[in-house]
Each structure stands twice: as structure tokens, then as C-alpha cells.
Amino acid sequence: MNEIELTPKQIVAELDKYIVGQKEAKKSVAIALRNRWRRKRLNEEMQDEIIPKNILLIGPTGVGKTEIARRLARLVGAPFIKVEATKYTEVGYVGRDVEQIIRDLVANAIRMVQEQESLRYEAKAEEEANKRILQVFWPKKTAIKEKVANPMDIFFSSEEETEEADQPKQLEEPKSDRRQKMYEDICAHKMDDREIEVEVREQERAIQGILTGNSTEELTSNFQEMLGSIMPKKKKKKKMTVAKAREIFKDEELEKCLDMDVIVDKAIEATEQAGIVFIDEFDKIAEKNRGGGPDVSREGVQRDILPIVEGATVNTKYGPVKTDHILFIAAGAFHVSKPSDLIPELQGRFPIRVELQSLTVDDFRKILTEPNQSLVKQYTSLLSTDGVELEFTDDGIDAIAEYAHRVNLETENIGARRLHTMLEKILEDVAFEAPDVDEHHIVVNSDFVAGKLNDVVQNVDLSHYIL
């Protein structure tokens, strides 16, 4: 993985492009990320001793907890996985085994490294794919020595041979030149719409349905791979466009170029040194009153998660993976329970705790307009494809922000997600009629917003269901 050198201020500035507010949370994750960069500058003995300071994000849903972690991982190109703590139960009974978190993280890392390595060989793979397409259009045959000096320059095509028999030999264009011209047309995508018949590998879909179940995921995957390597690859002829054939051939050529051993080594290193695990709904496994009862498995989940967070070696199909230096970011609303309800050992493994603030009217206003690819930009772009020009006025945006804040206070507080439901309700008729509407300029002002939302917002019971 390529290391990106960013200062904490630069990291926060990048996060500000997508997430409104929550300065303390951004500051904490920025420091955690920079500490990784600092650690790599130390000697090996010191590196082993310095472990990441895991972070616990506390705050209601929809305030940016998940987005902070996701954007952080994208920013540095680190392997990332988001999981919900409630999907896991003690030692994998009914639910999933917690070690599957690390296995899934490694699988994500494998995909990331494969994509990076594929970029290195992309030009070469496309060149080979184009040659294979040319071979389908104009197969290369063994030439007859008596007829030609250079046997590699002759390529037979029954239709062309018939046509060429009537042509004067002095006007005949060399076949090698015409074949080269066809190859250039293929490379320039001029023949992408032409249909050809090619041999493609048949996918062994039947194997995938033999074994199911969360507790046997790794066994199932290994069993499938084993059968896949033993059984011969079946091929079948299929008609498709040149463009589609190029994609298939390109993938096959990339497989030949990529060294899976190198990819696995790089992926495991990236997982161990730069992996980020985001565990959502962490408050759901905290026990307010410890003891017996139906919630006893919550403590079991905590104790199963503890070794992974502390630092353990997890066996995966790609080999053992150490979790000592993986950064864990946990998040939860903690409305009913509180962080102190977690078992003490797990509390100690999340030393950095940040409380995220509920969103204000001003925050909603900024979320609508300021981030890259903001909601207003998204809806404007979507409807522009039907020739409709949306214009959000300042008072219209203010009205949406105020309605969203009000409904969050009066019903469930779902944070910024409320804006999605609001905008869908406001623009429902516009989106439905857009392809057929005569009016191509729609102004979304405060009156327009009030006309769509006022009745629903006034009726608190109705807003519970609609907004």
C-alpha cells in the first residue's frame, strides 16, 4: 500500500469536504492516523511496543460516525470493514464468529491490492485482449511455403479469398497490412458493436450452493477453491459484442500477469499495519445490569471481541494475521447503556472516547449545500438528466433544515438521514413527472417546501410513519 503523508490538519481538512461539524471526532481520528505514520519512522523494537489507541465514538445515529471512519480509510487507501456488533454472538452460536471480522478485512485487502496491481498490467492485458479479438476475426493459419516467402504474413479468410480471386494482383493490398488495419480499428474501439463468437470459461455455480451457514464460511470457501483447482475449467462458445469480449479477455490476461503469492503477502501486511475495523452498534452489546437473563450473551460477545482488539493471531485461508496494530473504531448511541457498562477489560482497550454532538439547524443547512457531492448537488444532477433544472433558494434550504431539525426533536432523532426522507417527500412529484413535464425550471423555495411538508409535520403521529 502506498503511504500517504498527511498532517492531522490536512486529514481534518479532507474530512471537512464530506462531513459537517464533529471537530473533536475528526481531530481524534487524525491523530490516530498520524501516529501510524510516526510509528513507522521508529526502530523495529519500538514499533512493536507502540499499539494504536482505539477510539470509541459516542453519539446518536446519523451524525457522521460511520462516515468519518469510512472516509478516513479511503483517504489513506487502508483496508476497511464496517460490522455491526449485534451480528455476532458468543463463540459463533446462531450468529457469526467474531474472528470472521478479520477474515473479511483480509479479503477486502486482497481485493484492494489486486486492483492496485491490475493497474500496473492494465495496458498489457488490454493489448493481449485485442490480439485475441483479432484472432477471432482473422485467424492466423500456417502458410504454404511454395506460395509465400514469409509464412507469418498470410492469413486465410474464405470470404475474402473468393473476392480477391477476381481482383488484379497488382492492385491487391498485402493481407498483413489489412490485418494490421483491423487490429488498429479494434484497439481504437471502432468495432466494439460488432458481434463475435468466443470461448469463455463456464462458472461453477453449482458448487456455491452446496454448503451454507455462517459458522462454516471459511470451510465452504476453501472447499470451493479446492474443487475449483481440481476440476477442469469448462469452456463454452458464446456470442457477444467485441466490447464485452475485450472485458472477459482482459480479465483472463490480468489473471496470468498477477502473482497471487505477492498479492497475498502485500494484503496481509496492509491488514496488519494499516487495517481499520469499524464496529457499529457497540452500545447494544453493553449490559446495563450484569447478571443472568436473556441478555447474558452480550458479555460473551464482548469477551470474544476482546482478544482481537487486544492483539491476537487469527487464522485465515491466506495465512495467520496478527491484529496487534489494527485500528479499531467502535461507535454507539449509548442512550440506554453507557461505556462504563462494558466489561472493564474492553473499556481499557478503547482509551480515546469522543462524544459527537446532535445536529443543529445550521448543521443541516451546511449538510445540504457544503460537502462535495452534497444532497442538493445530487438531486439537481439527477433531475437534470430529464431536462429539469432544480433551483434551491436560500429560504428553501433554510426551511428544509428547520423541518428536519424539528421532526428529529419531536420523533426519533436519526440525524442527517432525516434530510433524505425530507427531500424524497419534497421532490416526489417532481421526480415522478420529470420526463413528461412542460415546466423545466423548478424553484424549491420556502413556500414550495411548506406546501409539501407542512401537513405532515403538523401531524406528529403521521410524521412518525412518513418522515
UniProtKB/TrEMBL annotation:
**Record's subcellular location:** Cytoplasm
Main localisation, per the record?
cytoplasm
Q: Per the record, which residues fall in region Disordered?
A: 158-180
InterPro entries xref list: AAA+_ATPase (IPR003593), ATP-dep_Clp_protease_ClpX (IPR050052), ATPase_AAA_core (IPR003959), Clp_ATPase_C (IPR019489), HslU (IPR004491), P-loop_NTPase (IPR027417)
Q: Which GO terms describe its cellular component?
A: HslUV protease complex
> Which residues are in the Clp ATPase C-terminal domain?
359-458
Cytoplasm keyword on record: yes
Q: Name a GO molecular-function annotation.
A: peptidase activity
Where's the AAA+ ATPase domain?
Answer: 51-356
Which residues are noted in the entry as ATP-binding? 20, 62-67, 280, 345, 417
The record, for CDD domains, names:
RecA-like_HslU
Q: Which GO terms describe its biological process?
A: protein unfolding
Q: Note the subunit structure.
A: A double ring-shaped homohexamer of HslV is capped on each side by a ring-shaped HslU homohexamer. The assembly of the HslU/HslV complex is dependent on binding of ATP.
Give the protein family: Belongs to the ClpX chaperone family. HslU subfamily.
Report the function annotation for this chain: ATPase subunit of a proteasome-like degradation complex; this subunit has chaperone activity. The binding of ATP and its subsequent hydrolysis by HslU are essential for unfolding of protein substrates subsequently hydrolyzed by HslV. HslU recognizes the N-terminal part of its protein substrates and unfolds these before they are guided to HslV for hydrolysis.
Q: What is this protein called?
A: ATP-dependent protease ATPase subunit HslU
**Originating species:** Megasphaera stantonii
Organism lineage reads as: Bacteria, Bacillati, Bacillota, Negativicutes, Veillonellales
